[in-house]
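Memo to structure team: turn this sequence into structure tokens by end of day. - J.P.
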Amino acid sequence: MAGRALLDTSLIVELLRGDPAVAEKVGNLDEIFTSVVVIGELPYGARHSANSEANLQLVADFASSITALPSDRVTADTYARLKHGLRVKGRPIPDNDVWVAAAAVQHGLTLLSRDAHFDEIDELKHGST
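Reply from structure team:
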């Protein structure tokens, strides 16, 4: 699977846990990105894990190895459009995930995630493992 993708928190967690299917899929990409929102979610989750110190280091090492796309006005406008579309459909998803999807849509990236609720966003290219 050559191409460019934005990795969501759920997929990165599985990658860091050593899931071979995720590692293979990510390894076959030409370019990988994430969102600054994900860079915030990862250490938050690590702080609540059984082995927080080791997991915080693992997350920090990963975060330094990937391009995190910042949010800007275009991201904010995309977020508003996507969130409104979900509301109209009656299918809301967590706000952080709308921000992550907005970054993927803005940059024309496929979003790789383990969360099926991203399927609710019509203009999002979404893949899973």
